[in-house]
Amino acid sequence: MSPKQFIQAYSVCTTVFSSVDLATLNGDSPRWAAADDASAKWLADKKHILARPLALETLDPNVEHYAGMVVPDGDGFYFEPRNLKIRSFLEYFVKFRKPVCLIGAGAAALFSTEPDPGEQWLLRKYSLTAPSNLSAVRHNKYLTHRSIEDFIVDMYGRYSTGKNESVHIVVDDNLVTAQSKACTLIAIQTFILLCNR
Q1: Which controlled-vocabulary keywords does the entry list (predicted)?
Q2: Can you say how many angstroms the Cα of residue 128 is from the centroid of all Cα atoms in its chain?
Q3: Contact at 8 Å (CB) between 117 and 123?
Q4: Percent of the chain, pLDDT > 70?
């Protein structure tokens, strides 16, 4: 996960919300990409918060207590294709129109919403963006990672893309999706606006 983009998202959210729960798939500490000096210092200062995130399975089952949900750019969901907790959260947030923000590779959380045979996709006909296949090829991830772009199209979502690594977000009702980590700040700001409407 990119420290700089995580710091942007976390800082904005903790400024606006009285509490922010951090969770990872198994409660494991996040795996950070290389950090610049300022990001490394921030991570060291917040080590007590970041060292022990919640496991998704232990999050409050009363999801109505949450104002929204943010999944930052990170590869974790590429390798956890059907997480039932993420699926239940996304179903609840979509049903009750609570804001959801999926940034870059964090949109791989959508794989958890794959419908059972004979059912329609939860986000059918929603307009969405995520890392493009071209971006995956350029970053040598196309052969090792499932394509979010293809998944959205196959599930009858409306996929759009901007220029590679450009600032491109899509807002459809309560759902904010960002094409890449370069869009983190504007995606989080849009998410906050939706939370305050």
Answers
A1: Endosome, Secreted, Signal
A2: 12
A3: no
A4: 95
DSSP SS3 for 170: strand
Q: At 153, is the pLDDT very low, low, confident or very high (cuts 50, 70, 90)?
A: very high
What domains can be seen in the chain, in order of their start residue? 3-16+23-28+37-195 (3.40.50.880)
Strand partners, 100: 69, 175
180: nearest Cα among 104, 110, 107: 104
Extract the tokens encoding 143: 């052969």
How high does pLDDT run on average in the chain? 89
What token pair was written down for 106?
Answer: 């964090």
What b-and-e string marks burial along 65-103, b requiring 16 or more CB atoms within 10 Å of the CB? ebbbbbbbbbbbbbeeeebebbbebbeebbeeebbbbbb
